[in-house]
Amino acid sequence: MLTDAKVKTLKPKEKTYRILDAERLYIEVRTSGTKIWRFKFTLHGKEGTLSFGEYPAVTLQQARKLKDEARTKLAQGINPSLEKKKEKLEKMVKANNTFKAIAEEYAVEQMKHKSADYVGRFKASMALDVYKDIGALPINEITSAHILNVMKSTVHRVNSSAKFGTGEAAANLNRRFIGLVMRYAIITSRLDNDPTYALRSVISQPEVEHARALEPHEKKELRSKIDSYNGSATVRNAALAMLYSMLRTIEIRKLEWSFVDFESKTITLPRSSRQTQQERVMKKNRTHIVPLSTQMIALLEQQHSIAGDQIYVFPSPQKRNCMLSRTTLNRMLEYMGLNKVTAHDFRATASTALYEKGFKEDWVELQLAHVSGNKTKASYNHAKHLAERRKMLQDWADIVDSWKE
């Protein structure tokens, strides 16, 4: 029989050799010096070999214990080699069925045609709040209680940063993202039910504050403070462009130079298409034309001197060819002391002012890119009333500038 001291002194030779311990347990010494424990057995008249691992990671005492366990299985008619392979396969399957593994698979397989912004939000949500709690768990072991803990942790995290609200919206977004992964696991036969279903109403969000038209004093303060803003020129120009154009925040953020036509004095936001690989720009996926006022043209020409060599008209000041972040414009308003004003209020202010000036509803709603009841008809209306809308946007830009007086 071997001793630990003898195993320790075994040296490699020109050829691999074996030294027997007892009951068909032996150590194999390879030419590289590696020492492997092996056990030879016979079951149903067939011989087999089982590896117990490398010495000294597996000691002589441990190897003998593993040999005894294998002999017990053999006495029960169980092939220990096949049993080991089965356990290894089960561990591999379990590792591939963790929530994180399936979420990453979902992102690759199911989010191919989602916007980069949406995919980024999904991945940030997973990394920031979800994976640390349930990422390593097998997806079929995750319960509603696990997910509720993720949601509560999210609310706590957001509450710890006073600038970013109370956290209910982030918690519910995390629940929806987790639900997407769970339902993907169901359709790929790795899960039977979606544990997020029971949590749909567990955390109520604060009542949504709808956009409102700005008060006269807010208009003057906004216009003055935009001009005197001492932060990034790109961010300032983005805010002013949003005012002049009546575009949404996301549309300003996704605005590319390829959409701008200085000759025709228009911006054309295209409809997304898988064939052209064009990412969705508009909230409602259809073409939208914005006639340019003289103020907007001057602003774009100035911005072209700043970022004309990049993809986006108003790119991130920190990263080339990347959009502004989702919160940048509202953070700008907060920085300027306009805490009760949001970027979304710009559109409501424009709508109210233009209706008061007597502009037709069709022109205003078309310029706001609101979808009519007839969606098929709406998809062909992007160039309708273009001359009238050009005059309307020029009048609106003049109104915006009059707030400085």
Describe this structure in words.
- This protein has 16 helices and seven strands.
- The chain is α+β, with helices and mostly antiparallel strands and 405 residues long.
- It has three domains: 4-90, Double Stranded RNA Binding Domain; 99-199, Orthogonal Bundle (DNA polymerase, domain 1); 216-402, hpI Integrase, Chain A (Orthogonal Bundle).
- Helix 4 crosses helix 7 (168-187).
- The chain is elongated, with a radius of gyration of 33 Å.
- It starts with a helix and ends with a helix.
Descriptors:
16 helices; 10% strand; elongated; 405 residues; alpha+beta; 4-stranded antiparallel beta sheet; 7 strands; DNA polymerase, domain 1; hpI Integrase, Chain A; Double Stranded RNA Binding Domain
Task: Offer a concise description of the structure.
The protein is an alpha+beta fold and 405 residues long.
| SSE sequence, one letter per element | HEEEEHHHHHHHHHEEEHHHHHH
Strand residue percentage: 5-15%
The CATH top-level class label of the largest domain: Mainly Alpha
Biggest beta sheet summary: 4 strands, antiparallel
Structural domain count: 3
Radius of gyration: 33 Å
CATH topology of the largest domain: hpI Integrase, Chain A
Q: Would you tell me the overall average pLDDT?
A: 88
- Name the helicity range: 40-55%
DSSP summary, beta strand count: 7
- The CATH superfamily of the largest domain is Intergrase catalytic core
Q: How many helix segments?
A: 16
Task: Give me the side-by-side strand order of the main sheet.
Answer: 1-2-3-4
State the shape: elongated
CATH architecture of the largest domain: Orthogonal Bundle
Tell me the structural class: alpha+beta
Report low-confidence residues grouped into runs of 5 or more.
Answer: 373-380
